[in-house]
């Protein structure tokens, strides 16, 4: 694929910030709000925002089933924060009846870091990125974490916890990539560069 076009789901959330990051790593991008627009893209970013709102809007716009079909068909997708929740096969702490797009064999806990810590920043060890020795500065906003991963899922990064085990905050399963945090709110484009590599491999 020479010139892939990356869609950014534009129902709600930080769409423009992702488009800016994609431009920085040399990828063309376009907002996606309709099934036709989804059909036209080679890859997709599910931005951060509010997963319950995005789920309801995706249903209203008739996008939920088309999204599931494209993921099942091998579409490369990167989900950040609420986008990670949308990619998860299972969620904990969702609202009643909350559905996801799914595709990743992970269990994600919403608002996992607790109300007292609405947002925080941390430097992560993220060896799958370019310049692997340079930590990634990560911004977490009412973030989920990954509670359980299936066999086919690679854990890419954890955030340190007091007991030293670390909570999983970045995962990859085939062409699906997800982070609990928001790289689009920093100046470091390496996560988007990793996603573009996955898109080009596809
Ligand atoms: N920054 C975010 O994307 C927050 C995610 C939000 N807590 C949710 O459940 O969707």
UniProtKB/TrEMBL annotation:
It catalyses: L-glutamine + H2O = L-glutamate + NH4(+); aldehydo-D-ribose 5-phosphate + D-glyceraldehyde 3-phosphate + L-glutamine = pyridoxal 5'-phosphate + L-glutamate + phosphate + 3 H2O + H(+). The active site is at residues 81, 182, 184. L-glutamine binds at residues 49-51, 110, 141-142. Its EC number is 4.3.3.6, 3.5.1.2. Keywords: Glutamine amidotransferase, Hydrolase, Lyase, Pyridoxal phosphate. Catalyzes the hydrolysis of glutamine to glutamate and ammonia as part of the biosynthesis of pyridoxal 5'-phosphate. The resulting ammonia molecule is channeled to the active site of PdxS. HAMAP family: PdxT. Belongs to the glutaminase PdxT/SNO family. This is Pyridoxal 5'-phosphate synthase subunit PdxT. It comes from Jiangella alkaliphila. The lineage of its organism: Bacteria, Bacillati, Actinomycetota, Actinomycetes, Jiangellales. The gene is pdxT.
